[in-house]
Specification:
- This is DUF1523 domain-containing protein.
- It holds the Pfam family DUF1523.
- Keywords: Membrane, Transmembrane, Transmembrane helix.
- InterPro entries: Phage_phiNM3_A0EWY4.
- With 214 residues, this protein is of the alpha+beta class.
- The chain has 2 domains: 124 residues, OB fold (Dihydrolipoamide Acetyltransferase, E2P); 65 residues.
- Helix content is 44%, strand content 21%.
- It has 3 helices and 5 strands.
- It has a 5-stranded antiparallel β-sheet with strand order 3-2-1-4-5.
- The longest helix is centred in the C-terminal third of the chain and has 62 residues.
Length: 214
């Protein structure tokens, strides 16, 4: 039972960590090298990794998606998709896909004369699953080593863990006041019943011994 309990909580907190890692904004300092538009197939099991800003997109098998190609300071490539989130989850309320596409085109620079930008995004990049992080905004960076402090993530995670802590403390108090006494009473009843049975057995044993001695 203890192993099942630990397995449950490990699975739960792993799911929470995955949820936050995918949903919370991340910031990459990159050099934008190109933008393009490509038709992407929306398979049933990977559809959750694509935005659905239009009602008809839920029934489409594929659609045109804008992409932003970039290079990190260490030379590794990264590709972002550029889709509106609209009023859906996650709640970034992004409606400026066309504007961001224009800004990305204007931010293209060469390796000989690099211009660095901070791309705010959410999601993951996975070549095997063909999924891309969704770019939310781009802003000029003072240099390739620039890394902004994720204040929003800090605030959200602090509020989340504060809420979890408050719920846990209240649950502990509730259990100590209401649940534990009930179990203690049940345990005492079982102990009393067990003692009564043992007492009866002891008296029966004494009677039997006295009968044999006659």
């Amino acid at each position: 039972m203890v192993y099942l309990k630990w397995a449950f909580w490990l699975t739960f907190w792993a799911a929470v960590a995955i949820f936050f890692h995918y949903t919370l904004p991340q910031h990459d300092t990159v050099r934008i090298v190109n933008t393009y538009e490509e038709r992407q197939d929306l398979t049933d099991w990977t559809r959750i990794f694509w935005s659905e800003p239009e009602d008809q997109s839920t029934s489409l098998a594929n659609r045109d998606v804008q992409f932003i190609q970039a290079v990190r300071p260490n030379g590794r490539a990264i590709v972002y998709r550029n889709e509106d989130t609209g009023w859906r989850w996650p709640p970034y309320f992004k409606f400026d896909t066309a504007n961001l596409y224009t800004e990305a085109n204007d931010a293209v620079s060469t390796k000989a004369n690099p211009e660095w930008y901070v791309v705010k995004h959410y999601g993951w990049r996975n070549e095997f699953l063909t999924i891309f992080p969704n770019a939310i905004s781009i802003k000029p960076a003072p240099g390739p080593d620039y890394s902004p402090i994720p204040w929003l993530n800090i605030i959200i995670l602090t509020l989340f863990f504060a809420t979890v802590w408050a719920i846990w403390v209240r649950w502990r108090r509730f259990r100590a006041r209401r649940i534990d006494p009930v179990f203690d009473d049940i345990e005492d009843s079982w102990d009393a019943a067990g003692n009564a049975i043992n007492d009866r057995r002891s008296r029966l044993r004494r009677w039997r011994d006295s009968w044999r001695s006659k």
